[in-house]
Design brief:
The complex is a heterodimer of chains A (184) and B (250). Chain A is mostly helical and 184 residues long. Chain A has 13 helices and no strands. Chain A starts with a helix and ends with a helix. The relative contact order of chain A is 0.11. With 250 residues, chain B is α+β, with helices and mostly antiparallel strands. In chain B, a hairpin with a 6-residue loop joins strand 3 and strand 4. The longest helix of chain B is centred in the last third of the chain and has 13 residues. Classes of the chains: A mainly alpha (184), B alpha+beta (250). The interface between A and B is medium-sized, with 17 and 21 residues.
């Protein structure tokens, strides 16, 4: 039985069939992998580039980063403080969801981009306090429109930096490479 | 009574004086067994409610439980003191060496027994090797009906099916206090924060703090004169961090 199948596969038609199956599985896998690397669809096509170009600091819209665990996403009230003075806000199609959100009072459903799994407890504050800049992990936002991850935020990425930061300090190294520092 | 040094157990490590970092003193004389600590712990640490059926299979999940004992035969039954039991955060923990995935490891920084949920593969060896029987296993993804998910503690991982869990000495509170102290450029003060069980205890039977510093309340209680404190199953060489005080009028 097995030999029969093998013989059929070894003839030209069989080889083509094997090739087609392999190619289709491979392309689905490539598509699946690339889908995980896409930046998510956002309710507003927010251009970070433009806002940073105006000289707005990261911490103006994400003040939580300096104080606590979450950097935070600004509410539409914060957007509106500037945008209600801008003529274009009234007419722009791209900004219509913002206008709608302010008038109706419903919050804008932003999709978080830089996320860690539930079993990782990340705190922004100590990282800012240790002199890290936003772009060290989030990339240069002055070059992108919709936020995207410049690198995979995985444990290797975190640990490399932790070990580098600790340097020769033994006590610091123990603290920064302890499982319980991030996982609990 | 057999002491630690009488035992010829090769596994028992006696590397000088074990100190530990965080510790607890539980005064059994004033514990009323009201279970407030059990409820507070469940709320703080996102512990699921397993329901009646699974509870019947012995799969109830609690990181702290109140053990009750009695002496004599019915009807002449005399209740002894209630005994809150949770992870003793052993200095030489039996759960640690048996984990094949290194999911339960000893924290060098905090001197606690950690449970790393994302590493755990659910062999349950650790629970079988724990002499205090304080580890609980997620047999299912237990459902939380609305609006219960709204009270999740965001600082604690919501565990999924197939992982082991146990008392962490509220490590999220330790980290929070340390983070706050560091942002203000000082050390964590004694009594600045406490665990959920100690906070909820109406009779203050549970005291939590540093046991490696002499000026803390926990240290004073542990070393006060002829202390009545004792540690559970100390003869196994587990070097527990929790001291139980019993029958001394504090």
């Amino acid at each position: 039985m097995l030999k029969k199948i093998f013989d059929w596969l070894m003839q030209p038609l069989g080889l083509i069939a094997v090739g087609i199956v392999f190619l289709s599985v491979f392309s689905v896998a490539v598509y699946g992998l690339s889908a995980t690397q896409q930046t998510p669809e956002q309710p507003i096509q927010f251009p970070h580039k433009t806002h940073i170009g105006f000289g707005i600091q990261c911490l103006y819209c994400h003040p939580g980063a300096a104080k606590g665990p979450a950097a935070g996403i600004p509410s539409q009230a914060k957007c509106w403080a500037c945008h209600n003075q801008i003529e274009k806000t009234q007419t722009s199609v791209l900004l219509a969801p913002l206008k709608e959100a302010v008038l109706s009072g419903n919050s804008i459903q932003w999709v978080p981009v830089a996320i860690v799994p539930d079993f990782v407890q990340f705190n922004h504050r100590p990282h800012i306090a240790a002199g890290k800049n936003c772009e060290d992990c989030h990339g240069d936002m002055s070059q992108v429109n919709i936020a995207e991850n410049p690198q995979v935020l995985n444990m290797g990425f975190c640990l490399n930096c932790h070990i580098e930061t600790a340097g020769e300090d033994e006590e610091k190294l123990i603290k920064l490479t302890d499982c319980g520092t991030c996982h609990y | 009574m057999t002491t630690l040094s009488d035992l010829k157990i090769s596994e028992v490590k006696l590397e000088g004086e074990h100190v530990g970092k965080w510790g607890m003193v539980i005064d059994q004389d004033i514990c009323t067994g009201c279970q407030a600590c059990v409820a507070a712990c469940s709320m703080e640490n996102n512990i699921p409610f397993v329901g009646e059926e699974d509870s019947g299979y012995g799969r109830a999940m609690h990181w702290i439980r109140i053990e009750r004992f009695w002496e004599g035969e019915y009807p002449e039954v005399k209740m002894t003191n209630q005994q809150p039991m949770m992870c003793q955060q052993c200095g030489s923990a039996p759960c640690e060496p048996v984990c094949p995935a290194f999911a339960t490891v000893h924290s060098q920084a905090e001197q606690l027994n950690l449970q790393v949920y994302n590493r755990c593969v659910g062999t349950r060896y650790c629970a079988n090797n724990c002499p205090y029987q304080v580890r609980t296993f997620n047999w299912r993804d237990y459902q939380r009906p609305e609006p219960l998910p709204n009270q999740f503690n965001p600082d604690v991982t919501v565990r999924r099916r197939g992982v082991m869990e146990k008392c962490t000495f509220c490590i999220q509170r330790i980290h929070k206090a340390q983070d706050k102290a560091k942002s203000e450029g000082r050390e964590v003060a004694d009594g600045e924060f406490t665990t959920a069980c100690a906070q909820a205890c109406p009779s203050n039977a549970i005291t939590f703090g540093r046991i490696d510093k002499e000026d803390t309340l926990v240290y004073q209680m542990m070393h006060h004169g002829q202390s009545h404190g004792k540690k559970h199953l100390e003869e196994l060489g587990t070097l527990p961090s929790i001291t139980y005080m019993n029958g001394g009028g504090a």
